[in-house]
Amino acid sequence: xxxxxxxxxxxxxxxxxxxxxxxxxxxxxxxxxxxxxxxxxxxxxxxxxxxxxxxxxxxxxxxxxxxxxxxxxxxxxxxxxxxxxxxxxxxxxxxxxxxx
Length: 100
Prior knowledge:
This protein is of the alpha+beta class. The protein contains three helices and four strands. It has helices at 11-22, 40-44, 89-97, and strands spanning 5-7, 33-35, 63-68, 74-80. The strands form two sheets. Strands 1-2 form a two-stranded parallel sheet. A two-stranded antiparallel sheet has the order 3-4.
C-alpha cells in the first residue's frame, strides 16, 4: 500500500509544511507530498473548491481521500467541503482492508 498527499503548493512549501508537522514531536510525515501547482490532477478529479475562484490561491482542492485498488480503480472516496472535517483513520483502514 502507498500513501500520497497532493496540493497546489510548490515542493519547497510542502517541505516546510512537513517540517512544521514533525516539529510537534509526534513523528515526521512518512509519505510523499506531491506538488500540483497547475492543479491538473485536482481538476481531473473535480476537486477544485470554487470558494477560491478569482483569488491568488485558486486551485485549492476540497479535502479528499481516495483509496485506489491495484487495477487503478477508485474503490472508496470521501470528499469534504469543510477542510476541518476528515475521514477517520478507522474509516480509511476499513476501506483499505476491504480491498483484501
